[in-house]
């Protein structure tokens, strides 16, 4: 068996966390590949290394000294080195980084040094091989990852049977220039490595014990999700559940490799298993009707009113093309016979709203337009919902009982997710009401 294990920033925040990581890795010989984030926060007054590196870059761009910030980063790694008795030559590493950025600042190079230094320290501490991500994670020039080339480079660079540590978050373009991923990109690196070596499991270690049905900040002691499908996870992640980077799913889903989200601070807990198909396990242990409830605030809904709009060919295409022209992503498009609504995140349209409406009027000559902001979108996700007749009606009834006004409603044809629009002020109340009715009540009956 081969396991790829990725440790997030909180898992490698200090020397004490490094010790926990070592216990986890050495407790299972099948954990062959370790991907690490940069050191995270040790406490409330600490800072993530990546944040400090971005701050260094900002100081350099504005011609302000970055020495004090750079010293904080040095201190963090020196503490880890000294506490663990490592021999890594940090002075030379930091001197080289300074020379490189003083000669020619490459922001991607600079911010990638957090993962680079963390992986160097972790590799020595684990007695593992270190493989620089810039040598094996290959981007195309359009910013996508070249999986075939990455697999080729990894296979050539890794010594079979040896424990290997690879920094997350960055790779290199075809010309060798370092490029970083979006924040949280170490999740993607782990997924790519799992794909390359046909891993049996991709373990993602963080500071929570898997996914929960609802946000613990909104629902007290929510039920943990024991297993979830890739498609359910994608929908929950897109609508605000940020345990795992959205794009980490694709490389492992391609090869049906399960992801196990675990807690570094509580390794005895099984966490949440993310799988392509949960049907066999569901027969033995039926899931809740609802797998997860998540969402985001601050959406704007633009509703266009036009008699017989649904019968006019090209009407919707013309409207959507205007949003595309202004580079505004669309979340959903609820449609009725004479109206259709376009739901977008408020932050993407607030500076362009009046220009877009003006152009919509010019091109479509609709009868009326209504704009409503300060809305929240809730995603109720569950593979078991398709077995429940009238699920949408049940949800609406629950919210109606709480005097929560529903602004929009859409349901996918696979009956796996229902998206409900409510006012921002009702966001938490709506999630609590749905959880109480469909999770707490169901638990009492079990």
UniProtKB/TrEMBL annotation:
Residues the record lists as binding ATP: 6-9, 206-207, 212, 217
One matching Pfam family: AA_kinase
Origin: domain of life: Bacteria
GO molecular function, one term: ATP binding
Reactions this protein catalyses: L-aspartate + ATP = 4-phospho-L-aspartate + ADP
Pathway: Amino-acid biosynthesis; L-methionine biosynthesis via de novo pathway; L-homoserine from L-aspartate: step 1/3; Amino-acid biosynthesis; L-threonine biosynthesis; L-threonine from L-aspartate: step 1/5; Amino-acid biosynthesis; L-lysine biosynthesis via DAP pathway; (S)-tetrahydrodipicolinate from L-aspartate: step 1/4
GO terms (BP aspect): diaminopimelate biosynthetic process; homoserine biosynthetic process; lysine biosynthetic process via diaminopimelate; threonine biosynthetic process
KW Cell membrane (keyword) present: no
GO terms under cellular component: cytosol
Keyword Transferase tagged: yes
Coiled-coil intervals: none
EC number of the protein: 2.7.2.4
Entry keyword set: Amino-acid biosynthesis, ATP-binding, Diaminopimelate biosynthesis, Kinase, Lysine biosynthesis, Nucleotide-binding, Transferase
Sequence ranges assigned to domain ACT in this UniProt record: 304-374
Binding site for substrate: 50, 115
Role according to the record: Catalyzes the phosphorylation of the beta-carboxyl group of aspartic acid with ATP to yield 4-phospho-L-aspartate, which is involved in the branched biosynthetic pathway leading to the biosynthesis of amino acids threonine, isoleucine and methionine.
Record-stated family: Belongs to the aspartokinase family.
Record's protein name: Aspartokinase
Lineage, uppermost ranks: Bacteria, Bacillati, Bacillota, Bacilli, Lactobacillales
């Amino acid at each position: 068996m081969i396991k790829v294990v990725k440790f997030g920033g909180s898992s490698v925040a200090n020397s004490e966390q490094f010790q926990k990581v070592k216990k986890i890795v050495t407790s299972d010989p099948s954990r062959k590949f370790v991907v690490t984030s940069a050191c995270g926060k040790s406490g409330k007054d600490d800072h993530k290394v990546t944040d400090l590196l971005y701050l260094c870059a900002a100081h350099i761009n504005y011609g302000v000294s970055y020495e004090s910030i750079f010293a904080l980063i040095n201190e963090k790694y020196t503490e880890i080195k000294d506490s663990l008795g490592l021999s890594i030559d940090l002075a030379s590493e930091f001197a080289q980084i300074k020379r490189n950025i003083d000669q020619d600042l490459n922001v991607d190079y600079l911010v990638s040094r957090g993962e680079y230094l963390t992986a160097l320290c972790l590799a020595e501490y684990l007695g593992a091989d270190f493989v620089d991500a810039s040598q094996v994670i290959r981007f195309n020039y359009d910013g996508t990852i070249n999986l075939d080339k990455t697999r080729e480079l990894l296979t050539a660079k890794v010594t079979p049977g040896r424990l290997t540590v690879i920094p997350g978050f960055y790779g290199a373009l075809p010309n060798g220039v370092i490029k970083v991923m979006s924040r949280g990109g170490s999740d993607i690196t782990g997924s790519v490595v799992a794909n390359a070596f046909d891993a049996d499991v991709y373990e993602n270690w963080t500071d929570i014990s898997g996914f929960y049905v609802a946000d613990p900040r909104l629902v007290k002691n929510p039920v943990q999700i024991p297993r979830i499908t890739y498609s359910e996870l994608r929908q929950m992640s897109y609508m605000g559940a940020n345990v795992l980077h959205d794009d980490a799913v694709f490389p492992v889903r391609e090869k049906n490799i399960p992801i196990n989200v675990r807690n570094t601070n509580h390794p005895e807990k099984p966490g949440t298993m993310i799988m392509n198909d949960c049907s066999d396990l569901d027969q033995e242990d039926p899931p809740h009707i609802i797998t997860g409830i998540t969402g985001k605030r601050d959406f704007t809904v633009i509703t266009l009113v036009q008699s017989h709009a649904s019968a006019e060919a090209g009407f919707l295409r013309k409207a959507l093309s205007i949003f595309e022209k202004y580079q505004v992503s669309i979340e959903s498009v609820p449609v009725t016979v004479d109206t259709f609504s376009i739901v977008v995140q408020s932050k993407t349209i607030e500076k362009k709203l009046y220009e877009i409406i003006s152009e919509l009027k010019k091109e479509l000559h609709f009868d009326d337009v209504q704009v409503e902001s300060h809305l929240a979108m809730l995603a109720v996700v569950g593979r078991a919902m398709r077995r429940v007749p009238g699920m949408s009606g049940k949800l609406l009834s629950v919210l109606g009982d709480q005097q929560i006004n529903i602004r929009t409603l859409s349901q996918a044809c696979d009956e796996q997710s229902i998206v409900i629009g409510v006012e921002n002020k009702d966001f938490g109340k709506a999630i609590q009401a749905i959880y109480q009715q469909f999770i707490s009540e169901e638990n009492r009956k079990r």
